[in-house]
Design brief:
heterodimer, A: about 800 residues, 4 domains, B: mainly beta, AttH-like fold, 14-stranded antiparallel β-sheet, 3 helices, 24 strands, globular
């Protein structure tokens, strides 16, 4: 019978503490939801990209690409005398008038669902813009997909004949690439490559088809990884919550467990009981979390997609792809975390002495005596975190491992810190609030078994907001400062582009010259951005025509400006590379970079590494004079204009807009406008970070709420005794409020050093390793104040209901109920 | 020659699928079998061949050379069709076919929509160098009689950007790396000596084939039909312009299956262009180009009605040793199938004939060198080297080429209506 007795008691306990369990379930659910939501958003974006990339690659194994802006069409003619075979067209073109497709100018195909969504039918006109220039296409047919996969892959495609594409894109004699199917055998592949290389112009390169997709995916890898890591934060906070709930339940039932043990229940059964309860909470929480996560992903995917589009490349993710693998991972994390958090309380319960009705005071003194031991473990874990940080290497995961170690260490140190803090605060509290204050401070110490964990959870969550907040702020300040010195021209002109930071769009021929002639322009400098291959991998190359002030717009991390600039201007084979590029590829001053040019691969000396926050992939910058020697490309990606003195940037911008050639839409921004736009993008990118931070706080809040409510409601009898002893309801309410406020204060104060440590790791380890940026650490006091305020507010809010309820409780009844 | 040879029956969709291949990726030079099932199964389009706006062959016209050796882009279809029977010094026999087809995808001056705007703005609005309405397809096959191996390949390319094209002077017709050209054009009206070069199926291996042949002409060209106007069906315009070089002494090298062989023998070239369709009632055709000992050549095509009966528009020509021409009509010729052969695809082809021209005292037995000479190209047809034996004491023996279309390929998912006119 003991078994049935056991489970009956368990059921009754859970039923009586439904709200507590409910909050725990919610905590787990939110943690799992955030992890799953981010994971789904990331994988959906990646999948959408891969699908359309694969669709365009088809069965091709290799591709020929040009050095910079593209490949001359003659390359294709030359290649075609060599044997190889080709791939498959996108989608099924049944019902398409193929004659019209090839011969009609502007003829295009699109997927049937896309056409439906746009309200277009074959024969309709499509208005599109190419680098800001309007074009008209005619829809001559629809791509009908046989399956869902194809439908998704073709959704963002406009398929045209190559002649149409050249005309519409304004690239008459250019191809983007040539797809090849080369023999599979190594020898055959090599032979085919050799023969092809002979037919190709010197700048062309044969590479594996996956190379491009992989490159693009790598771009977002650090981004996705950071999101995933941040999403785990919510789960970590949730983990504290579970630990708290289970510990509380064990402490509260200690007498009952003792009696059950006397009735013959074994330690194993008690252990199983507690873990079983935790598993139930975990299971329900995880299931709810998975459902919430799928919902959350719908919103998050938009944020992720927007950030990717701002920063990296255009990907259109319309639906979240819910893969079983992601759900399984989320479920495993949820259940695993719950059981891990419940392990210690379960063991604790299993140790309960037979038939001895333990006083909680004993448990509490045990918790207090445990505090130094925990603190000791905390120091050990902190040391581990330090070792991980100091370990050489660039692994982002190791960085995050150190980060989580720091969190764990802080949590372990929390009880000892609370004891010390409570002791230190007692005189202060007494001075301000009298005897109530002293009681509150002492109560905090005395109920450490529960308050310790609640405080730790709140501390971790608040510290996370501090760490992420400081990091974001530092980042923003650094970018702002950089924008200020790097944007020294007055007006910036570029064609509209889908990807803000990586635009390789070009202006129509002659536009740059036209704009330079606008009255009021004192100087004009052009910029050209292209993707090229290099000895260090795919590289964004920026060619600038340096003006007199150019020198001031670059700050070198390494390299001597006095030496570099004259050679740079002189058109020598000197390049300067941005910091992320240097970090990512291990390129340093004095190194030689071999860039793919239209003259073949050529060596360029790295003269300097400069600070740059425009691209996390980094750029290689050379002078236009050098570029023109190596690349057959006259195009221009943007123009920077300086106003004559006395003319404001805004007035010049207005003149430039008026002077824009018809048919060429331009993005004309004053330096101020561009700065604001850049910061706006920055803020947009970090929007998702803030969402994650907030979610962690929500979980922490739930944790504090449940911990404090459990604590205070359980103390009804104690409070009733106080009432009976002559305390007014107001005094009891004040006592409860003071105590919860003290907990909040403790969490807030403890969160500050931890938050600073986290921000340090985020800025100097995680960010550096992810993107290679050097950020100036900025600690705005308002973030610290906010953190303490947040902790206090959360605690006070959580304590409000218990305080109100305690104050109103009828002492006689409360004492009877016990 | 092939009166309305394979092209007439090509479902256009197949061609445009190929065109799409070129657009989306770089295509071709595929061993033909890898593409056929897929391409032929493509549905639709192009109706039953709208011929509005194209030039038509309505009445005999004076030919003008060298111009007429070049392309006639106003007509919907055109081809340069070369077949031949070659021998190595040791007597190993090879047949080959090398054909370049030109297809117009839009009628001349069909008034393209001008590309948008591009209001001036300095934008480059000239047409792309890849813009064209001319499409080229080339077929290449070698029949190696010794091992009974048949190699076939096809290529597609647009008639632009130097990828494919045709020109009369100096004569050159090419589809990517495959070409027929007069390398040392003498500025005369002919195209000889003509050099054929084509390579396919990998650089050097079991499945590869290469031709490098030099052709001269032993006889003046023969104008088929009525002064070069070859009527294929009822109604004005259902005809083609058609002339042939019936005996072209050839030498050079052929590489097949890893062997490179010096060869010599006679070739045959047909030139034909038209904007006409087979009639609804016509099912296909059997075409014979035979080169007989004694210096005579016989061309005869028999159009088959749906029921199998020969069409009245079947016709032929007998060329004498000094180039004298005798036109043959359906009534002059008796063609009997002696044997049949069923291909893997299930299509059953005639595989031995008795061909008689009583008025010329000819009684010939025509036998394929081997049976499986099916072109597994976008459209499947049989095109093969044949041996000719004359009953009259060998005075009429020889070799030649036969083309068979419309034999059971219809069942393979091709939408019969989508053929080129």
């Amino acid at each position: 019978m003991p078994n049935r007795l056991l489970w009956t008691s368990s059921r009754r306990y859970l039923a009586r503490h439904l709200w507590l369990m409910g909050l725990s379930v919610l905590g787990v659910a939110l943690g799992v939801a955030v992890v799953v939501g981010i994971d789904l958003a990331n994988t959906s974006a990646e999948r959408a990209f891969r699908l359309s990339a694969d669709r365009l690659t088809g069965q091709a194994t290799h591709q020929v690409v040009g050095a910079g802006g593209g490949l001359r069409t003659s390359a294709y003619r030359r290649v075609r005398t060599r044997p190889y075979v080709g791939g498959r067209p996108a989608g099924d073109t049944a019902g398409v008038d193929r004659g019209a497709f090839m011969t009609k100018e502007g003829a295009a195909l699109m997927s049937a669902p896309t056409a439906r969504a746009l309200g277009k039918r074959p024969g309709d006109t499509l208005r599109i813009a190419v680098d800001g220039q309007p074009r008209t296409l005619q829809l001559v047919g629809l791509l009908r997909s046989r399956d869902e996969r194809t439908r998704r892959a073709t959704r963002n495609l406009l398929v045209t004949d190559i002649a149409t594409a050249q005309e519409v894109l304004g690239k008459r004699e250019q191809l983007t690439r040539i797809d090849l199917i080369l023999p599979e055998s190594e020898a055959g592949e090599k032979r085919a490559k050799n023969r092809l290389q002979q037919a190709l112009p010197p700048g062309a390169e044969i590479r594996r088809s996956e190379a491009r997709t992989e490159t693009v995916e790598q771009m977002t890898r650090a981004f996705s990884l950071n999101l995933s890591a941040l999403s785990l934060l919510a789960l970590v906070v949730g983990l504290f919550l579970i630990y708290n709930t289970m510990t509380f339940s064990v402490v509260q039932r200690r007498p009952l467990i003792g009696r059950l043990r006397a009735l013959g229940v074994t330690r194993g059964e008690v252990f199983a009981l507690v873990l079983g309860e935790a598993a139930l909470v975990g299971l329900v929480g995880t299931l709810v979390g998975l459902a919430l996560g799928v919902g959350l992903a719908q919103g998050l995917v938009r944020l992720v997609t927007r950030a990717i589009n701002d920063l990296y490349f255009v990907v259109n993710v319309q639906d979240v792809t819910v893969t079983p693998w992601v759900l399984a991972k989320g479920a495993a994390l949820g259940m695993g975390a719950t059981l891990a958090a419940a392990y210690a309380p379960a063991r604790e319960a299993a140790r309960a002495e037979v038939s001895v009705t333990l006083q909680r005071s004993r448990a509490e003194s045990a918790a207090r005596s445990l505090a130094p031991r925990l603190a000791f473990a905390g120091v050990a874990v902190a040391l581990l975190a330090g070792v991980l940080l100091l370990a050489p290497g660039q692994s982002i995961w190791v960085g995050y491992a150190a980060l989580f170690c720091a969190l764990l260490a802080a949590a372990l140190l929390a009880p000892a810190a609370v004891v010390a803090l409570a002791r230190a605060l007692r005189p202060v509290m007494e001075k301000i609030f009298g005897v109530l204050g002293r009681m509150a401070a002492r109560g905090l110490r005395q109920s450490l078994s529960r308050t310790g964990v609640a405080i730790a959870a709140l501390m971790v969550a608040v510290a996370a907001t501090v760490g992420v907040g400081v990091m974001t702020k530092s980042f923003r300040q650094t970018v702002r400062a950089w924008l200020t010195y790097s944007l020294q021209s007055d007006v910036y002109v570029q064609p509209p582009s889908l990807v803000f930071r990586r635009s390789t769009a070009t202006l129509a021929r002659g536009t740059a010259d036209t704009l330079a002639q606008v009255p009021g322009v004192a100087g004009a400098h052009t910029v050209r951005r292209v993707e090229v291959a290099s000895s260090a991998g795919p590289t964004q190359l920026v060619a600038i025509k340096p003006g007199p002030e150019t020198q001031d717009t670059y700050r070198f991390k390494t390299g001597d400006p006095a030496q570099v600039w004259p050679r740079f201007r002189g058109g020598e084979n000197v390049v300067i590379v941005s910091e992320p590029y240097g970090y990512r590829t291990g390129t340093e001053v004095g190194d030689t970079l071999r860039l793919q040019t239209d003259r073949g691969r050529d060596a360029f000396r790295v003269g300097a590494v400069f600070y740059d926050y425009a691209s996390d992939r980094g750029v290689v910058t050379m002078s236009r004079a050098t570029y023109d020697r190596y690349y057959d490309d006259e195009r221009v990606s943007g123009v920077a204009l300086r106003a004559v003195s006395g003319l404001s940037a805004d007035s010049l911008a207005a003149r430039v807009r008026a002077a824009a050639p018809p048919g060429q839409e331009l993005v004309v921004q004053s330096s101020r406008g561009l700065r604001e736009a850049s910061l706006e993008i920055f803020d947009r990118t970090f929007a998702i970070t803030n969402v994650l931070r907030l979610l962690a706080v929500v979980v922490a809040f739930i944790g504090v709420l449940s911990a404090l409510m459990a604590l205070q409601l359980e103390r009804r009898r104690e409070l009733a005794v106080m009432r009976a002893g002559g305390m007014t309801p107001g005094q009891v309410g004040g006592y409860v409020t003071l105590q919860t406020g003290l907990m909040g204060l403790a969490a807030g104060l403890l969160a500050l050093p931890l938050g600073m440590a986290l921000s340090y790791v985020l800025v100097f380890v995680i960010n550096k390793r992810s993107f290679g940026w050097t950020l100036q650490l900025q600690v705005p006091p308002e973030i610290l104040l906010q953190a303490v305020g947040l902790a206090l507010a959360a605690a006070l809010l959580a304590g409000a209901y218990p305080a109100w309820k305690m104050a109103r409780a009828n002492p006689a009844e409360a004492m009877r109920e016990g | 020659m092939n009166s309305s040879p394979p092209l007439a029956r090509l479902p256009l969709p197949a061609l445009f699928t190929a065109a799409l291949l070129l657009v989306a990726t770089a295509g071709c030079d595929r061993p033909a079998d890898s593409v056929s099932s897929e391409s032929v199964a493509v549905a639709g389009a192009m109706g039953s061949g709208d011929t509005t706006g194209y030039a038509r062959a309505t009445s005999p016209r004076p030919f003008s050379f060298p111009e007429d050796h070049g392309p006639h882009p106003g007509f919907k279809t055109e081809w340069w069709y070369v077949t031949g029977n070659l021998d190595t010094p040791k007597g190993r026999h090879l047949g080959y076919q090398f054909t370049i087809f030109r297809i117009a995808m839009a009628p001349p001056d069909s008034g393209r929509a001008p590309l948008q705007p591009a209001s001036t703005g300095g934008a480059d609005t000239s047409a792309s160098g890849w813009r064209t309405d001319q499409f080229y397809m080339a077929h290449l096959a070698v029949s190696d009689v010794r091992g009974e191996r048949h190699y076939d390949f096809e290529r597609f390319a647009r008639g632009a950007a130097g990828l494919a094209g045709a020109r009369a002077e100096p004569f050159r017709v090419w589809t990517e790396g495959w070409q027929m050209a007069e390398p040392d054009s003498a500025g005369d009206a002919d195209i000889f000596p003509l050099r054929l070069t084509a390579q396919a199926g990998g650089s050097n291996g079991e499945k590869s084939v290469a031709l490098d042949l030099r052709l001269t002409s032993a006889k003046e060209k023969v104008l088929q039909g009525e002064r070069g106007l070859s009527q294929k069906g009822p109604g004005a315009g259902n005809a083609s312009f058609y002339y042939s070089f019936t005996r072209l002494p050839t030498e050079g090298t052929v590489a097949a299956g890893g062997d490179t062989l010096r060869v010599r023998g006679p070739s045959w070239m047909d030139r034909e262009w038209s904007t006409s369709a087979l009639g609804e009632e016509q099912a296909g055709w059997d075409w014979f180009a035979l080169q007989l000992s004694g210096g005579r050549e016989l061309m005869y095509y028999q159009l088959r009605q749906k029921g199998g009966a020969p069409s009245a528009y079947s016709e032929g020509v007998l060329v004498g040793p000094r180039g004298e021409v005798t036109h043959l009509t359906r009534e002059d010729v008796a063609l009997d199938v002696l044997e049949q052969w069923t291909a893997e695809s299930g299509a059953t082809y005639p595989a031995k004939w008795r061909l008689r021209v009583p008025s010329e005292n000819l009684d010939l037995t025509v036998t394929p060198y081997f049976e499986n000479q099916v072109m597994n190209t976008s459209v499947r047809y049989w095109e093969g080297a044949v041996r000719v034996e004359g009953s009259a004491g060998g005075s009429a023996s020889g070799s030649g080429y036969v083309e068979l279309t419309g034999y059971g390929e219809e069942g393979e998912g091709k939408e019969g209506r989508g053929m080129l006119p």
